[in-house]
Write a structure and sequence with these properties.
By secondary structure, this protein is of the alpha/beta class. The chain is built from ten helices and five strands, in the order βαβααβαβαααβααα. The chain starts with 6 loop residues before the first strand and ends in a 10-residue tail after the last helix. The C terminus is likely disordered.
Length: 222
């Protein structure tokens, strides 16, 4: 295991802004990184309860706590880079969830990178009803534009502020996957103290990894 502090990266934003797509591509480029998408918990809980059921959030929290406890209890097995996706706002529930992430990060003495992803209302709506996203509707993904509009009109995405080692927002409206990933890796240098070549592995240079993603755009499915 590396002697470097663990790194926790959280992508947060409304449904359809590109969290999973970007996080998945970033994970492929960071040696030893593991991605835990928020829908892994949501899908498990919705298999038993509807979202408005009083048992929904307690079970979701219990599963999240179990995951954090496991990562804390087995440091030798813990990935050096943990990437999470979330859709949490500044309301009481969202703040509570993100405080759990913050407590976990502190407990393993990790650096915390918070990346808020956004896109225009129009683009967000298009992605939400795309064929790719609808194909995954069985995974409890939101595909109702009306609900999305309500969320965007009433909610504000949570930010850690000074509690994070670094935090910034990326508007993905007109960006390709490669553009976003390149920006994230470049900024991560300042947090990790490592060069791009170390972050993405010795077998690939930044230019090589960017070229591999050259033709990709952010699919409208997350």
């Amino acid at each position: 295991m590396s002697s470097s502090p663990p790194l926790v990266i959280i992508f947060n934003g409304f449904p359809g802004v590109g969290k999973f797509t970007i996080a998945r591509q970033l994970c492929k480029l960071l040696p030893g990184a593991k991605l835990f998408d928020n829908h892994l918990l949501i899908d498990a809980v919705t298999a038993l309860y509807e979202r408005d059921d009083p048992a929904f959030q307690p079970l979701r929290k219990a599963l999240r706590t179990t995951i954090f406890d496991s990562l804390i209890s087995y440091p030798d097995s813990r990935p050096p880079i943990l990437i999470f996706t979330e859709c949490q706002s500044t309301d009481a529930e969202g703040t509570s969830v993100m405080s759990e992430y913050l407590a976990f990060t502190k407990s393993i003495q990790a650096k915390l990178i918070s990346i808020v992803l956004s896109c225009s209302n129009e683009e967000n709506g298009k992605r939400l009803v795309s064929s790719e996203r609808k194909a995954k509707a069985g995974t409890a993904k939101l595909t109702d534009v009306g609900i999305l509009k309500t969320m965007r009109g009433q909610a504000e995405i949570h930010r850690f502020g000074t509690d994070a080692t670094d935090e910034w927002e990326i508007d993905t409206t007109r960006l390709r996957v490669e553009d976003v990933v390149q920006r994230v890796i470049a900024r991560m240098q300042n947090v990790s103290g490592k060069s791009n070549s170390v972050l993405i592995g010795k077998t690939s240079t930044p230019d090589q990894t960017i070229r591999r993603l050259r033709t990709q755009t952010i699919p409208r499915n997350r």
